[in-house]
Amino acid sequence: MTIELYSDRVWMRPYAIEDVDALHQLWCDPDVRRYLFDDRLVPREFV
User: Fold this and answer.
1) What secondary structure does DSSP assign to 1-47, as a single string?
2) Residue 35 neighbours by CB under 8 Å, 6+ apart
3) How far, in Å, CA of 7 to CA of 20, rounded?
4) Burial zone of 31 (CB within 10 Å; 0-12 exposed, 13-18 middle, 19+ buried)
């Protein structure tokens, strides 16, 4: 069973293999890395 959450502005679901490139691009953004990864670069294999 997959749980999906909806609101007026957001749809949240588990990420799929098709999302890997977009997720990696987001995680490589300096403003995101600063808060999530202690400003370390995230290797694509981590996704």
Assistant:
1) ----EE-SS-EE----GGGHHHHHHHHHSHHHHHHHSTT----GGG-
2) none
3) 23
4) exposed
- Residues above pLDDT 90, as percent of the chain: 49
Dump pLDDT digits (tens) for 1-47: 889 999 999 999 998 999 999 999 998 899 988 888 888 888 888 77
How far apart are the C-alpha atoms of 12 and 10, rounded to whole Å? 6
pTM above 0.70, yes or no: no
